[in-house]
Automatic annotation (TrEMBL):
<dbReference type="GO" id="GO:0033499">
    <property type="term" value="P:galactose catabolic process via UDP-galactose, Leloir pathway"/>
</dbReference>
<dbReference type="GO" id="GO:0003978">
    <property type="term" value="F:UDP-glucose 4-epimerase activity"/>
</dbReference>
<feature type="domain" description="NAD-dependent epimerase/dehydratase">
    <location>
        <begin position="3"/>
        <end position="254"/>
    </location>
</feature>
<dbReference type="InterPro" id="IPR005886">
    <property type="entry name" value="UDP_G4E"/>
</dbReference>
<comment type="similarity">
    <text>Belongs to the NAD(P)-dependent epimerase/dehydratase family.</text>
</comment>
<keyword id="KW-0119">Carbohydrate metabolism</keyword>
<keyword id="KW-0413">Isomerase</keyword>
<comment type="pathway">
    <text>Carbohydrate metabolism; galactose metabolism.</text>
</comment>
<dbReference type="Pfam" id="PF01370">
    <property type="entry name" value="Epimerase"/>
</dbReference>
<dbReference type="InterPro" id="IPR001509">
    <property type="entry name" value="Epimerase_deHydtase"/>
</dbReference>
<dbReference type="InterPro" id="IPR036291">
    <property type="entry name" value="NAD(P)-bd_dom_sf"/>
</dbReference>
<protein>
    <recommendedName>
        <fullName>UDP-glucose 4-epimerase</fullName>
        <ecNumber>5.1.3.2</ecNumber>
    </recommendedName>
</protein>
<keyword id="KW-0520">NAD</keyword>
Amino acid sequence: MSWLVTGGAGYIGAHVVRALAAAGIDPVVVDDLSSGHAGFVPEGVPFVQGTILDKDLLVSTMREHGVEGVIHVAGFKYAGVSVQRPLHTYEQNVDGTRIVLAAMADAGVHNIVFSSSAAVFGTPDVPLVVEDLPKRPTSPYGESKLIGEWLLRDQGVATAASDSPLRHTSLRYFNVVGSGDPSVYDTSPHNLFPIVFERLLAGETPQTNGDDYDTEDGTNVRDYVHVADIAAAHVVAAQRLAGGEPIEPAYNLGSQNGLSVKQIMDAMARVTGIDFTPKIGPRRPGDPDRIVATGELAARDLDWRNRYTVDEMVRSGWEARRTAH
């Protein structure tokens, strides 16, 4: 049996594909390459180039490869841009998830791991985010991910009394960084690590958005988690679903402690050997001082833990980016 990874040619999805293969599970990839890269898909892994909005394509792919479950990573992942492109965001993330679920029903596939986001919480006013915290997304992206969780929940309820009820879980994560394979790196123009890497490679000075937050060093504190740890949690979730083991509807893949932007910048200078002092730019509107999640539930059920130091996170991402440069 195999598992379908939607968005498996992207930064996170490609790591999930590798983690599945390492666990002895055959991955199959569907990706439209809107932000992914065909070269990120390992040789020998079946790759279907196409959109998750094409239900017939998904059904035929699931049937052809005897798919047992889906890890649904594909989506439009840019929270800031989603404010300018809400209709596109909803098409990709809400319609896309609905169509994935419909294709699963047609193909007789009943297990799904959904890549959700910390954006479902919006800007919580608590120092440590837990799973049942009220959901108040502040962008169309966050709203679309929350609706995705609702779609899974509702389809689970609708099929609960059937012979093959939908088994599902949603994994919410925050700032995914680093690389678990030198051939795969984050290419997003909106994430901190690739932004800093690109500026350093161009001989420019990175920027910090504000240094007067209510934190120990004045810069934002956030969850930074290594992409290989994220991928490993997806695989364990898939195994629990396939094995019929109990599983929660959602897990926060949090670091418990968080790192400040200054700590990240200091690590960037140490690891790269490029001595720099970040420029201090203006605060971004609505940026909270601190958002960090507990990962206790995921640690209990998904073998979730942070296996990398901040320097190791930076080094793995930097080496992968330099390899590609």
